[in-house]
Recover the amino acids of this structure.
């Protein structure tokens, strides 16, 4: 109900206050729209993670404010760190309105599991979901396969027919991790749709799927740096 | 397998993931794996999979949720041996 207010506001903030630009944004948006139109099953977006507002920039890269107003389910849900984005009740309510399920990373496993289950149910219902499979921002400024959080593997394995849209996004001035990208930065964005599967079960299956996704991001990062 | 032997193997498996060496030196069954030993929560799955390989057991997802301390891990493993 509040989406006509906050979606244009967030987009305007990035466009006019931060003066961000995304290279080939039309192509990225066309690809995302096509995926949303043609893929009927659950869709999980997995991205590299360098700043605290990556989820907003990624959403903006994948769709315009106008398009999202008519395709609200395409605005990805995500699971931000509760201590950063939802420390107070008011912040938690605002986060929920903006399609966030706050989670305490490294917190009690039962709490993390409950939030993950809620996230899985939402994505199973046709909403787009966004997770950062490295768990937190890449401290070395590069995708770190050793930092893989296996929860993403569990999400994929519990969603039959789930496709994973790998998104590699990086500002030209983003040398390492930071709170927000530099004002006026230009972003490179690349999308790859994959269907990670495994014959392994349980935790081993979660690990295999999660590592497959992060390996894709590693390859996309290599492509980015090779092309510079 | 004796419980003490299980605990020794558990500690050996945990050691490479431990960031707080002081807590490791004074380890008890009540020592929290995440809060005291400062094992990265994302690595807990690797630890549990190492338990599976070492002891020839299988651990379900929800059983992992119940492992908070070194003693919890030892109890879980002993219950499956």
């Amino acid at each position: 109900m509040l989406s006509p207010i906050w979606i244009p506001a967030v987009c305007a903030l990035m466009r006019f206050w931060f003066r961000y630009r995304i290279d080939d944004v039309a192509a990225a948006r066309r690809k995302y729209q096509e995926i949303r139109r043609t893929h009927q099953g659950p869709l999980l977006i997995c991205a590299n993670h360098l700043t605290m507002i990556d989820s907003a920039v990624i959403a903006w890269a994948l769709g315009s404010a106008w398009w999202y107003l008519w395709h609200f389910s395409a605005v990805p849900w995500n699971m931000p760190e509760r201590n950063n984005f939802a420390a107070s009740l008011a912040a938690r309510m605002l986060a929920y309105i903006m399609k966030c399920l706050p989670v305490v990373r490294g917190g009690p496993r039962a709490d993390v599991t409950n939030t993950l289950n809620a996230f899985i149910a939402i994505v199973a219902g046709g909403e787009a979901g966004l997770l950062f499979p490295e768990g937190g921002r890449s401290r070395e400024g590069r995708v770190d396969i050793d930092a893989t959080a296996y929860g993403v593997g569990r999400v994929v394995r519990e969603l039959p027919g789930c496709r994973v849209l790998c998104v590699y996004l990086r500002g030209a001035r983003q040398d390492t991790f930071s709170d927000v990208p530099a004002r006026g930065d230009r972003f490179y964005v690349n999308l790859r749709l994959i269907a990670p599967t495994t014959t392994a079960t349980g935790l081993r299956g979660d690990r295999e799927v999660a590592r497959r996704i992060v390996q894709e991001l590693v390859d996309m990062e290599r492509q980015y740096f090779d092309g510079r | 397998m004796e419980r003490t032997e299980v605990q020794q193997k558990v500690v050996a498996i945990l050691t490479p993931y431990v960031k707080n060496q002081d807590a490791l030196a004074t380890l008890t069954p009540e020592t929290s794996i995440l809060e005291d030993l400062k094992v990265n929560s994302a690595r807990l799955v690797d630890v549990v999979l190492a338990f599976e390989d070492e002891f020839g057991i299988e651990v379900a997802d929800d059983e992992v949720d119940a492992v908070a301390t070194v003693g919890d891990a030892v109890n879980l493993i002993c219950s499956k041996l």
